[in-house]
TrEMBL record:
It comes from the Bacteria. InterPro entries: Phenazine_PhzF-like (IPR003719). One of its GO terms (cellular component) is cytoplasm. It comes from Dyella telluris. The lineage of its organism: Bacteria, Pseudomonadati, Pseudomonadota, Gammaproteobacteria, Lysobacterales. The active site is at 47. Pfam families: PhzC-PhzF (PF02567). This is PhzF family phenazine biosynthesis protein. Belongs to the PhzF family. GO terms for molecular function: isomerase activity.
Amino acid sequence: MLRYAFKQVDVFAEQAFKGNPVAVILGADGLSDDQMAAIARWTNLSETTFVLKPTDPSADYRVRIFTTVRELPFAGHPTLGTCHAWLEAGGVPRGEEILQECGIGKVRIRRLADRLAFTAPPLLASGALPAGQVDAICTALGIDAQDVMDAQQVDNGAGWVALRLSSPELVLRITPDYGRLGHVPVGIFAAWPATSESGIAEFEARAFIAGDAVPEDPVTGSLMAGIAQWLRHDPQAPDGYIVNQGRMLGRAGRIHVDQQGEDIWISGQTHTLVDGVLSIPLMG
């Protein structure tokens, strides 16, 4: 029987069971690709991560990220959840920041007072979406093209495209036709009206991934990192804001976005809710 330390971490929520869970298997160097994929299918979460020894000597650890159907070079809530699990298990970073090695390279992570934060990686694909693709997505979402204020590629490893819609109420009303949505992950978002009470801008967002075991992702750090890279070129966009996500799934995700110089930091709270051992029978 092979035994691996296992944690399930709730990410991007201030209350337990209100964020996006990620399964983290520590010390996973002995697992094969097929075993990792099988474990990810079994956990049946949006992502499962495997912590390995780094191949880059400057990194603190390496992570591989699996959905139920494929491996991802990068994902947001798995980045924070994996870092949380690694630190909790006794991981000691080489410097003040934690350096995570993953499929897109190294990602910087910081410990804040009550949150972890990662730097939004550069976009692998950006720019306006073709009108035909926007029309097809609108059909799948059941909205009119006039409800779309802008639409961009925001791919930082997960393949996201994003639509900025006319109102947060519309974001919350949508019921996607996943059969029409295709295999490109689609994010939608809109700004809430400014209020003097909160003092910070807030957005509402949702994320759809047709074909995955979790077709609507509860809280999505990679999408928000991609959107933040897009909005940094919008002179009307705030330097700091909060994204709410997951309401339609009974979650209460809160993603903090802050631009500091050339860096965009994506942060949220992380909580271990399952802490145990994963046992894998030896196959004779």
